[in-house]
Every structure is written in C-alpha cells, then in structure tokens.
Amino acid sequence: MMKLIPVKPRDAKKRSIKSINGWISIDKPSGLTATQVTAKVKHHVRAAKAGHAGTLDPLATGVLPIALGEATKTVSFVMGGRKRYTFTIGWGSERTTDDLDGEITRVSDYRPNKNEILKVLPQFTGNIDQVPPKFSAVKIGGHRAYNLARAGVEISLNKRCIFIEKFALLNLPSADLAVFEVMCGKGTYIRSLARDIGRRLNTAAHVKELRRTHCGPFSELHSISLESLKTLVHSAPPSAYLHSVETALDDIPAVVIDLSQADHLRHGRPIRVRTKEGCPCVDIDMLVDGDVLCAKAGGQLVALARLTGDEIRAFRVFNI
User: From the candidates 11, 27, 57, 99, which is the catalytic residue?
Assistant: First the structure.
C-alpha cells in the first residue's frame, strides 16, 4: 500500500514577502543597534531587501533612514549627506567606547568653564583630522575594529579628514555636563569629538547622550517610531510611512527621457543627447560633462547616469 507523505505548506513568511521600494525614516530608540532596527523594519513591512544609511550607536537615538528594495541603490547618497546631532558630554572620565557604555580608563577632577569651552570650539570646526573610536565599525585587516577591541586586541586607527560645518555649545546643565549641537559631513564620530575636546581642555570626557536630528534629506520631524510603524503597516496605506526612492536624490538634477531611451539605459546602452546634426535629443540644460543625473521616463525613475561627452551612460539602473 502506498504511503502518503503530507506536503508541508510553503512558509507563510516567505509567501508574504513584498516588492516594496522606498525609504522609511525611523526614530531609533536607545539600546538597539542600527542593524537590529533595520531587521525589525524589514520584518514589519515584509520587505525583500533592506539596509540603513548611517550607523547609530546602541546608546544613540534619532534619525535612522532605512532603505527598502530599489532604494538600497541610493544609500550612499544619504550617507554622504549632511548630518546634525545634539549630544551631551560628561566631563571627568574617558571610557573604552568613548561613551557612557564603556569602562572608565582615565579620570580628571578638572571641569572647564563656558569661556574655555567656547574658545576651543573653532579648533574643531572646518576640515579637521580625527581618529575613530576603537569601538567602531572601521575595518582593520578585514575585521571590524569593535570586534578586535572586544577581543582585547591592541589596535591603532589612522587619522581621517572630516568636515565640521557647525559646532555650538547649547547648554551647561551643571559643572559635569555640557550640551552641544554639531552639523557635520560623512564619517564623523561624535564620540571622538567628545574625547578630543576633553583632551584639548586638559580634562577627560565621554558622550553621555547622543541624538541625530537630521541625516541627509531626512529629519526627526518626519521620522516615526518602530511601534508606530508596526501599527501603520496594518492600518494605513504605504504613503503614511514610506518615502519615495527619489527622496535620497533630491540634490541631483532630473532629465526626462522617452520610453525608447529608457529601454536603452536599462540594457546598458548609452543614449545620445543630440543628433549628428546637433539637434537636441535630451534636454540637458545647465549640465556639464561628468555630471550625475536622474534619468526619468513617464514619471518613473529609470537610472542614475552620467553625462559623458554627447552621451548619457547609466551606472545604476532601477527596477521600479
């Protein structure tokens, strides 16, 4: 007698994976890593692919943009954008992680006053050299610095040039605390700023609180909590929480092409911007050779491309 073997239904989670493209700006809570938050967002919206733009430490809160689907191809544009932070420095101790989570490595009884603090801030504005914290995601020989540091390996990180557009003292709640606001470019470690300003003021310092209020085109005003997202996914349309893929490309000029030209770009073929007779095929007003542009057809984003001579060549194609 033939034995019937029951067939297990396909995994329900796999069946419900959605093709979702866009950005969700999360107001990250303290205590979770950026990777953990990204995993939760991916689970809530059942996205096939997700990634975050700009790491936030577990201690930190604030704006964490999450890219979904085709938006992951634009992550570098958000990471390269301007960021704004408010943070509190605790005077009197340096720590292994340069924030409140680490073990104390050095102490100082000295507390700088307001005038001393204001005097050194210009030294931390503009292009400056900065050594990342040992507990950071910087890679050394293929390994993350924080993994080596946790394993007790003695490591040395190289200086890197960063840009600080604004460094302002906001408040002095007590002799032990100072609250700052920083507007900066890519690659800036606020924990390193706290450590270095403490040393410059002949004391010891670490970050007690850290919040990111802006990251590229995203701000805290348009960010939502994980709890809100979980509710909205079941009670509201995607437009209530999802920003378009193009949100990350606001600063890049858009060029309108026709459907035939779009097909060329999607298949790796360049398109000409003018005919042999010099007649324009594409309106590239104000663009110069080498400029990056967003190619759009029928209101849809087709590709990120570069103007090269008389041609537009795609270097990143979108399947939206």
Answer: 57
